[in-house]
Amino acid sequence: MHHTGLDRSALDAFNLDAGLTLEQADHMIENVAGLYALPVGIAQHFIVNGREVLVPMVIEEPSVVAGASYMAKLARATGGFVASTDAPEMIGQIQILDITDLPAARQRLLNHKTELLQEAAQFDPVLISRGGGPRDLEVRLIEESPIGPFLVLHLIYDVRDAMGANAVNTALERLSPRVEAISGGRVHLRILSNLADRRLARAATTIQLDQLAFGQFSAEEVRDGIIEAWAFAAADPYRATTHNKGIMNGVDAVVLATGNDWRAIEAGAHAYAAHSGRYTSLSTWGKDAAGNLTGRLEMPLAVGIIGGATRVHPGAQAALKLMGVTTAAELAEIIVSVGLAQNLAALRALATEGIQRGHMALHARQIAIAAGAIGDQIDQVADRMVQEQNIRVERAQEILLQLEKKN
Ligand code: NAD
Question: Which CATH number fits domain 357-406: 1.10.10, 1.10.8, 1.10.12, 2.120.10?
Fold first, then answer.
């Protein structure tokens, strides 16, 4: 932790040993054989909606935490990140089969909309008391499928501070008998959709032009290089996939740190990236009238601070405490900001010196350790190899021998 330069007391909320016990793990999943640890890094310099926040990131990949922190630092001159979220409305799906007159059944369900919504409001008094619950009901006609046409009912359900999968799935299962009775069909699947496109989170930032110059690169070169790199992702799915993967480096790390379901977030993000019919970049980069770099990220973010592993995992609890978030919306606003910062870190590196240089130092340290370096030797060996641009285990061993001879 020493190299973050953070005041130790700032980290008191985050007990770095706070992990899961075998006993807790045994209640989480089946056939538990052990625990699996990952590094927790703390991203610094973030200001989200005017508030300073330290962001815990759980990730195995080098350079992510440093990249996000550095971009957050560049964003400070203009106040950091402005983020917002839609209402936490999830979509639950009910598949209805064996109907002969689909339009008529659809109309019958719509005629009973108020009654169905009232019934759905009975299932989760706790959620209702927090201001959540059913909001709307839609019925879609799937015209073509491998088994022919059928109906799909969408229950729009406000899940407040939960991710919502359990809440929605429970509501769907309990609503199904009425849906069968009204439609005259057979209810088959009843399950949440991870395409949470009514629950979008957005972040925007402006990087002052003068913050962008570095090394031999002028500020204009860096800015325009970033915009050119983004344009590639906007136009080409092969590039967009990797571009969005970079965004998810930041997003997933915070999602994981808070015990949230990162597969759900991944599934929703990539499906949303294709919502125009063509897979594209989740972010947008451009310049404002003053020539500053502007960035925006919009994506579904179904994260919770209640339920799932967020409540069970002590590390997740510590992560939420460190960030000082009290609502799921606040958490989503931080996550989407980290995603945007991470995206910028990757674009800036790619558009200038390339990605490998930044990775080099950490890579060199790993090679030094593999060669048997310990303590101070690690940095000494790594620095030499980076200088020589010769990062190999054999070279590390030679340098180690020389160091040992000297001492
Ligand atoms: P949950 O059911 O454990 O918690 C939600 C419940 O907490 C609500 O129904 C409500 O009764 C109560 N609650 C109390 N205070 C609340 C508040 N302020 N806001 C909202 N609810 C409040 O959790 P969940 O979020 O419904 O389910 C999440 C879990 O479901 C995750 O672990 C996920 O992995 C899993 N899951 C996901 C999928 C999927 O993504 N397709 C499918 C099934 C299960």
Answer: 1.10.8
Triad 321, 325, 329: Cα angle to 5°: 150
Q: How far is the CA of 308 from the centre of ligand 1 (A)?
A: 6
Question: What pTM, to 2 d.p., does this model score?
Answer: 0.89
Active-site residue (options: 89, 124, 161, 261): 261
Our answer on whether the CB atom of 167 is closer than 6 Å to any ligand 1 atom is yes
Please confirm, yes or no, whether 398 is among the known catalytic residues: no
CATH number assigned to the domain covering 89-192? 3.30.70.420
Top mutation candidate among 172, 261, 266, 310 for ligand 1, by most atoms within 8 Å of CB: 261
Q: What is the rounded CA–CA span in Å between residue 75 and residue 67?
A: 12
How far apart CA 84 and CA 156 sit, in angstroms, is 20
316 lines ligand 1 (CB under 6 A): no
The backbone torsions φ and ψ at residue 162, rounded to the nearest 5 degrees and listed phi first, read -100, 160
Whether 359 sits among the annotated catalytic residues: the reply is yes
User: What is the Cα–Cα distance from 1 to 7, expressed in whole angstroms?
Assistant: 10
8-82+203-352 is classed CATH 3.10.20.310? no
**Could you tell me the residue ranges of all domains in the chain?**
8-82+203-352, 89-192, 357-406
pLDDT tens digits along 142-184: 999 999 999 999 999 999 999 999 999 999 999 999 999 999 9
